[in-house]
Amino acid sequence: MIKRYYYINKKNICFLRFLLEAYEGIAIFETIDAKKSIILVYIACGVLNEFDMLINELKKDFAVYELV
Fold it and tell me: Each residue's pLDDT tens digit in the chain (68 positions)?
């Protein structure tokens, strides 16, 4: 599993959870800090490119920032 931290607006967290559940097996996440909207995403190793494409598409619609 690959771990990445992201900032995502609070109102979009449920949408992201729904989307990742629809793409079964691509990734799961947990909320690290609800007040700051920081999540930790666990990405399956074999689908990293697909996950990156999904995140890049989401960035067109709302703020998603990877925290380094």
Answer: 999 999 999 899 889 889 888 988 899 999 999 899 999 999 999 999 999 999 999 999 999 999 98
Which pTM was predicted? 0.85
The answer to whether domain 2-67 has CATH 3.30.70 is yes
Angle at the Cα of 36 (from 56 to 45), degrees rounded to 5? Answer: 40
Domain ranges of the chain: 2-67
Phi-psi region of 8 (alpha: psi -120 to 50; beta: other; left: phi over 0): beta
